[in-house]
Write a structure and sequence with these properties.
The protein is 49% helix and 10% strand. It is mainly α and 81 residues long. The protein has one domain: Orthogonal Bundle (Arc Repressor Mutant, subunit A). A two-stranded antiparallel ribbon has the order 1-2. Helix 2 crosses helix 3. The radius of gyration is 17 Å and the shape is elongated.
């Protein structure tokens, strides 16, 4: 499930077929995982049947925000003055 959450948290669309292939899951396993993530309010489902995809819910976006903020890069070789 981590790969699906990571993709969604970084703004991607999670499609069952891609998730299933990436994680080497059966159809039933992939469907079960995505349904569990929707029930846990981490993903939102959009579309119907073949056009269905999942995106990050507001709760997941809030959880992921600190990790996605750009951070200042400090040069370890530059002397402090």
């Amino acid at each position: 499930m981590v790969s699906a959450l990571r993709l969604a948290a970084t703004g991607g669309k999670v499609r069952r077929t891609v998730y299933q292939h990436d994680e080497s899951l059966t159809d039933d396993q992939a469907v079960r995982d995505l349904r569990a993530l929707v029930r846990a309010d981490l993903l939102e489902q959009h579309g119907q049947t073949r056009g269905r995809y999942h995106v990050a819910s507001a709760a997941l976006r809030e959880l992921a925000a600190p990790a996605l903020r750009p951070r200042e890069v400090v040069d370890p070789y530059k002397r402090a003055r």
